[in-house]
Amino acid sequence: QIQMLHCIAQSAQGGDNTFVDGLYVTEKFKEAYPEEYRLLCTEDIFLADAGTDEAGRYSIMGGSDHSTSTTTSGAH
Length: 76
Fold this sequence. Notes:
Layout lengths: L21 H11 L1 H9 L4 E7 L2 E7 L4 E5 L5
């Protein structure tokens, strides 16, 4: 069994967090939106993100044609 945690916003204090059962969400999405589910499973989707975390500033771009990840300060 695998559990994944995704941080949407870091909490300045405390350890509050929200867990989501990704497999349950996926199954419900597949049942309610089968064509959209098929599209997400078969089409390449480009990802781009940039920001700052504990390791410094970062930028991520990815897709089947290319994928890059850079950190401008700190070790990532």
